[in-house]
Design goal:
about 550 residues, alpha/beta, Immunoglobulin-like, about 25% helix, about 20% strand, binds alpha-D-glucopyranose
């Protein structure tokens, strides 16, 4: 049922922790849950509402935890279940919510379900994964995959299993077999695992690759991609018509939502990792036109800021289109970075990364921040012999590697940036001696990007118009993006200079609440205002004369 009351996940920001890289507590060079606990003061004072922790379940770590061997426990690398309980209790005590990363599409090939499924064609779990006979034809069976489906990490998505004389399907690595979501027992087992964590108090899930859960029941070949040039990953050779965004997926998402709804006072949030065009993405809210209810994910992750060129026209258009396509009652969200994407400061440089921070934290909808982006962390440089990511190891040299955006969090200017007392699993970024939490929190660095993030998060919390207001007057004018946030008689004007040139903008009377270079706060504005290259302004308007617009830009 829709509710008009506001929920915690609508008002606050989410902070993603990649646990391998946040804080190590035992000197093995890999971050862990007690490490996160030891940084609780940092998390509690940053100004975010929730932390989302990437997978820490028992795993052979073929894909660093996105290959789950037990959905209801903690891998010894990360600690123990009691460590998790201590962490969630402490985070709750400090007023932070906890969102788990959950991986329903595939398990590890070492999960007991798969170990059982693969031994024969007639065991109780024989249908828990996607098994198919070799395609007809000449040649040994292992050379005849059932169809042309490709792995996201390159190469065929089918691996032959001699014990069954069949192939199994894997959207990603061969160590990550896809579960058969058409099998009701699989659904039951995954929903039971969700309940396991809900019973331990978690406040929601970020569901991994939610749009991939169901595959075509006839296993039809995917159409060839007419735009494939032959370069890059073999994944691009075909269009994922039969392997992604199948209509039946929405039914599964509705069932997941029902699992969450069975914890009525929790308001647990269901977030979906979904890379799709806007129109298909917003369908994951599951709007039911007959009842006007939302039956899908609370927030299908919106990655379009990551994918849209950094250009005021394009971003203004994106905001308008996204807002315009949201179904009635659906709550928007925005993401700037994650453990699979080039960091924003690498993509744009520090000044535009500051502008991006103001954009993310003043748009309408829940923002998700990726650890380290609040320091302006850039991608690390990874020497070929330091590569750890299977996406890179599978297809060397074509830029699929995600190690650069997973380097250790930078805490202080000690040799390993305070991340570990041992050898870090990925190298610490160059420049860590000055770009770190301690340096950016010091009184000598009042204008650090970390302070910008803290101030933006605090202002967003403080002013209802910034977390709950409408967004309107979304415009772009010679490289400057502008919009207003409005609630009742409170109005804020945001100007963001997405260019490297000085710009002049015209503002109604008001005063500056914040600038991205942390200079000039409190000053009155009105009429012509100068924006430095790569500068953003957040202005509180005095007596705005324009009446409240509807809740759409
Ligand atoms: C998601 C995760 C990514 C992982 C993949 C396979 O896209 O974000 O890190 O490799 O799923 O589980």
């Amino acid at each position: 049922m829709k509710t008009s009351a506001r929920l915690w996940w609508q008002d606050g920001a989410i902070y993603q922790i990649y646990p391998r890289s946040f804080q190590d507590s035992n000197g093995d060079g890999i971050g862990d849950l007690p490490g996160i606990l030891s940084r609780i003061d940092y998390l509690a004072t940053l100004g975010v509402e929730a932390v989302w922790i990437s997978p820490f379940y028992p795993s052979p770590m073929a894909d660093f935890g996105y290959d789950v061997a037990d959905y209801c426990n903690v891998d010894p690398i990360f600690g123990t279940l009691p460590d998790f309980i201590r962490l969630i209790d402490a985070l709750h005590t400090r007023g932070l919510r906890v969102i788990l990363d959950f991986v329903p599409n595939h398990s590890s090939d070492q999960h007991p379900w798969f170990l059982e499924s693969k031994i024969s064609r007639d065991n109780p779990k024989q249908d828990w994964y996607l098994w198919r006979d070799p395609a007809p034809g000449a040649g040994v069976p292992e050379s005849r995959p059932p169809n042309n489906w490709q792995s996201h990490f390159g190469g065929p998505a089918w691996t032959y299993n001699p014990e069954r004389g069949q192939f199994y399907y894997h959207s990603f690595l061969r160590q990550q077999p896809d579960l058969n979501w058409r099998n009701p027992e699989v659904r039951k087992a995954i929903y039971a695992a969700m309940r396991f964590w809900l019973d331990r108090g978690v406040d929601g899930f970020r569901m991994d690759v939610l749009w991939l859960l169901i595959k075509d029941d006839q296993f039809r070949d995917n159409p060839l991609n007419p735009d494939w040039s032959g370069g890059g990953s073999s994944f691009g050779r075909v269009l994922p018509l039969y392997t992604a965004d199948r209509p039946e997926t929405h039914e599964v998402v509705a069932e997941m939502r029902a699992v969450m709804a069975s914890y009525p006072n929790r308001d647990a949030v269901l977030i979906g990792e979904i890379y799709l065009p806007l129109r298909d993405l917003v369908a994951y809210y599951g709007f039911d036109p007959n009842t006007a209810d939302l039956r899908g994910a609370d927030m299908p992750f919106n990655f379009h800021l990551i994918q849209t060129p950094w250009n005021a026209d394009r971003i203004a258009q994106l905001i308008r289109e996204y807002e315009g396509q949201l179904p009635t009652g659906a709550w928007p969200n925005w993401v700037l970075g994650n453990h699979d994407q080039t960091r924003i400061a690498t993509r744009l440089g520090e000044y535009q990364a500051r502008v991006a921070a103001m954009l993310l934290l003043t748009l309408r909808g829940t923002p998700t921040l990726y650890y380290g982006d609040e320091l302006g962390m850039t991608d690390g440089s990874i020497h070929p012999d330091q590569v750890r990511d299977p996406a890179e190891l599978n297809q060397p040299g074509i830029g699929m590697g995600r190690d650069p955006e997973r380097t250790p969090m930078l805490w202080d200017n000690s040799p390993v940036a305070g991340f570990t007392s041992g050898q870090p699993w990925l190298p610490v970024n160059e420049g860590a001696a000055t770009r770190n939490v301690a340096a950016q929190s010091s009184p000598d660095a009042p204008r650090s990007i970390l302070n910008l993030y803290r101030k933006l998060l605090a202002l967003r919390r403080q002013h209802p118009a910034l977390h709950a207001g409408a967004i309107s007057y979304v415009q772009s004018n010679s490289g400057v993006l502008s919009y207003r946030r409005i609630l009742g008689d409170q109005q804020f004007q945001i100007f963001l200079n997405l260019t490297d040139d000085i710009k002049r903008v015209t503002s109604e009377p008001g005063h500056i609440l914040l600038t991205t270079i942390l200079d000039g706060e409190g000053a009155d504005v009105g009429g012509i205002t100068i924006l430095e290259a790569g500068e953003g302004l957040l202005i509180a308007l005095k007596n705005p004369h324009i009446p409240d617009p509807p809740n759409k830009p």
